[in-house]
Specification:
It contains 17 helices and 10 strands. The protein is of the alpha/beta class. It has one domain: TIM Barrel (Alpha-Beta Barrel), CATH 3.20.20.240. Strands 1-8-7-6-5-4-3-2 form an 8-stranded parallel β-sheet. The relative contact order is 0.11. The structure holds ligand 8ZB.
């Protein structure tokens, strides 16, 4: 079948499904009709889409941590703790790195060694190895929806098993779980694998089971310009809608300048809905997700809490539907359950002290929205035209020529020519536009912003500013000032 942004032929899916379900022994546990009836037996409060819709209507922001450990009993206790002590509105199951690379044999060894040693020797929960029945124990041991969070270019079997098990939200996409996560996976392959996932979610939807899909907005998490993250999120929403997905969350990673971050989420929400409608998808429920800062964190827990609390502010300003909460142990590794729960309580406190205040200069937010929107439209309209009206074709061609590009990505399928840097107020601007399709008005806006910083710091605009910015927050400030 030629790769394009068109809903799959059902027989094509069924044929590929046989291969997918045979790729590991637990695949044979998956029975679609049985899964539909199991999912329909779950209360509505276990559906991420229901909880997201309710929060969206009530203008509330939901909180969700990341969490995953390899021993099933431990993982259940961890999620129950985060629900009870952290107040998580949606729980995660973060998948381990072996499973993310389809290396289920090593994941199996990791489970056995963890059981033998009595400690976590994998960095997440290996859901494929456990299979449908065991994963259902997780769903049945908590009271809120559980989402699969991972970083898997080929997540077809992971989706089959976890969706059948009752996870009602699934993160990732053919661009966002490839470019920042893999070196050698072609976009043609990862987009095809994720069309499978979206088609499966669409099949559940046709049978009355609404699964929420979420794009991984932060990408490489290092100074990613908002317009790049937003454009890619909208493209993945278009891919998912074409396959029949009815509930989609677009994500964005906090960059640090509060005005820019709030503006970014406003544009993300508005343009995702506009582009879906303009391509005829009127029945997809869109929600927004803010990720607390995804770059290098301070080791000191008090300073780490400052980064987390600052990151909560743009969620209040933009009324983001959900925050993916970071923890004060971000700089040291996988957090303890106590630190994870404490970060949830910290975030809730900031939300509830700010949500009654109207304190931001709306003109400054709108100025920022204007430039971000101009950039997003330039990128998306270019992708559409190089794809001759097809966003899948356009995406592959745009990445090959740098019309779409992600800074600091490991993938050899992105040019990596684009280079970001902060301006004098810490907003992320372009040091090098690479081949991004921006007009002179956009380019001179960024140059002027960088000249302001150069003047203030009494130094030339240089790559040294980029390096200083990469380490700035872990060293205690937003902008990487010269020593
Ligand atoms: C997008 C992935 C990076 C973030 O994902 C966190 N992360 C990864 N694996 C786990 C895990 N098993 N439990 C709790 N957090 C986890 C990292 O700390 C980082 O913040």
């Amino acid at each position: 079948m030629v790769l394009k942004n068109k809903k799959w032929d059902h027989n094509y899916f069924l044929k590929m499904r046989e291969e997918v379900l045979n790729s590991w022994e637990t695949g044979k546990e998956v029975n679609f009709e049985e899964a539909v009836s199991y999912l329909k037996s779950l209360p509505k409060e276990k559906y991420a889409d229901y909880v997201l819709k309710k929060a969206d209507e009530e203008k509330r922001t939901l909180l969700q941590p990341r969490a995953g450990v390899p021993i099933l009993r431990e993982h259940i206790l961890l999620l129950q703790y985060l629900q009870k002590e952290g107040g998580a509105d949606i729980l995660p199951t973060t998948i381990d790195s072996y499973t993310r690379q389809n290396r289920y044999r090593e994941a199996q060894i990791g489970i056995e060694e963890s059981l033998r040693e009595g400690k976590s020797l994998l960095n997440g929960f290996p859901a494929v190895n456990y299979g449908v029945k065991a994963c259902r124990e997780i769903i049945e041991s908590v009271d809120v929806p559980v989402e699969i969070r991972h970083g898997t270019p080929d997540a077809r079997l992971l989706a089959e098993i976890t969706l059948a098990a009752g996870f009602t939200s699934f993160e990732g996409g053919g661009i966002t779980y490839n470019i920042p996560y893999a070196k050698d996976v072609s976009l043609e392959n990862s987009i095809l694998y994720w069309q499978y996932v979206d088609y499966l979610v669409g099949l559940y939807a046709e049978n009355g089971v609404i699964i929420n899909r979420e794009s991984f907005g932060p990408l490489t998490g290092t100074l990613v310009p908002p317009s790049i993250s937003i454009s890619i999120g909208i493209i993945e929403a278009l891919f998912a809608a074409e396959q029949g997905v009815k509930s989609f969350s677009v994500g964005y990673g906090q960059c640090g300048n509060v005005i820019q971050d709030a503006a970014a989420i406003n544009v993300l929400d508005r343009l995702t809905k506009e582009y879906l409608a303009s391509f005829g998808y009127y029945d997809v429920h869109i929600t927004t997700v803010l990720h607390h800062f995804m770059g290098g964190f301070p080791e000191d827990e008090a300073r780490a809490y400052a980064v987390i609390s600052l990151g909560t502010i743009p969620a209040v300003l933009s009324k983001a539907t959900k925050i993916i909460v970071k923890t004060p142990q971000e700089a040291v590794g996988i957090p303890s359950k106590e630190a994870n729960a404490a970060a949830l309580r910290n975030t809730r406190q900031v939300l509830q002290m700010l949500d009654c205040q109207d304190f931001i200069d709306k003109n400054k937010v709108q100025e920022e929205e204007y430039i971000i929107e101009r950039e997003v439209r330039s990128i998306l309209n270019t992708v559409y035209s190089v794809g001759e009206g097809d966003f899948v074709l356009g995406t592959v061609r745009a990445f090959a020529s740098g019309l779409l590009d992600v800074p600091f990505a490991p993938s050899r399928f992105t040019l990596g020519r684009v280079m970001p840097v902060r301006d004098n107020e810490g907003a992320v601007r372009f040091f090098d536009f690479g081949n991004l399709p921006f007009d002179e008005e956009i380019k001179s806006f960024h140059r002027k912003k960088l000249e302001e910083r150069a003047k203030y710091e009494k130094r030339e605009i240089s790559f040294q500013m980029v390096l200083d910015d990469i380490y700035a927050i872990s060293k205690g400030r937003l902008v990487g000032r010269p020593r």
